[in-house]
Amino acid sequence: MLVLVVLLVVVIGLTFSVTVSGDSMQPTLHPKDRLEVDLLHRKDVDRFDLVEAVEPGEAKFGGGTDIVKRVIGLPGDQVSIQGGAKPRVLIKPARTDEVFEVSNPTWPSQIGSSTSSCCTATGTASPERAWKTVPPNSYWLLGDNWGGSTDSRVFGFVKESAIKAKLSFRILPKDRFGKLTTDAKLVPAQ
Predict the structure, then answer these.
(1) Which residues contact 149 (CB under 8 A, 6 or more apart)?
(2) 70-87 exposure pattern, b = at least 16 Cβ within 10 A, e = fewer
(3) Distance (Å, whole) CA 64 – CA 16
(4) Which CATH number fits domain 17-188: 2.60.40.10, 3.40.50.150, 2.10.109.10, 2.130.10.10?
(5) How many helices and strands in the chain, by DSSP H and E?
(6) Per DSSP, what are the bridge partners of residue 82?
(7) pLDDT mean over 97-115
(8) Could you tell me if 93 and 102 are in contact, meaning their C-beta atoms sit under 8 angstroms apart?
(9) pLDDT of 20-43, one tens digit each?
(10) What are 51's strand-pairing partners?
């Protein structure tokens, strides 16, 4: 009986999970990390949640691919990136004029050459810094590996219907088994 229970737990864990591919979420997640998917709360997304989503756009440009990213902008938020040697992600939460900076401790060590300002009407990077509002039923997603992530800076806003699951628990590898936490937060902009 115990063997059957263990086997059932393993099958359920493998069925309701996603395996990370690529480096876009390093150092938080690594390729081949297996994460439990929360299908029941996929429409209850909060800022800084990790989600599995379907990348928007044409298949020949990567659209339709399953991706894992961090939610930065919620519906109604205004978002902007001030590019440069140390890019700053700025947020005006919905229904407020207060400006906050996203403080994500993983970004400074991962800048790379992807330092464009943002945003165009669709939420993608642009040569000029501008504020854009996240449309209703949409999100703005970024990777923790700032210089190595294809995210909303490339493909724009992601519709709520493209969110497949929330991700909050790592199953494998067993030495990093456990709840995923984040040190990302909003701080008053200077």
Answers:
(1) 24, 25, 69, 114, 142, 143
(2) bbbbbbebbbbbebeeeb
(3) 20
(4) 2.10.109.10
(5) 2, 15
(6) 88
(7) 86
(8) no
(9) 999 999 999 999 999 999 988 888
(10) 69, 166
SS3 state of residue 50: strand
- By DSSP bridging, strand 66-73 and strand 138-142 are antiparallel
Q: How far apart are the first and last CA of the chain?
A: 61
pLDDT band, very low/low/confident/very high, at 4 (cuts 50, 70, 90): low
What are the sequence ranges of the domains in the chain? Answer: 17-188
The two structure tokens encoding residue 24:
């876009």
Location of structure tokens 């990390």: 33
In the predicted model, what is the mean pLDDT of the chain?
89
**What is the distance between the alpha carbons of residues 183 and 72, in angstroms, rounded to a whole number?**
13
Look at the block and give the residue holding tokens 């700025």: 90
Q: Across the strands, what pairs with 91?
A: 79, 100
Mean pLDDT of 119-128: 90
Residue 8 has pLDDT above 50, yes or no: no
Structure tokens at 37: 């998917």
Note the pTM of the prediction, 2 decimals.
0.89
CB neighbours of residue 174 within 10 Å: 8
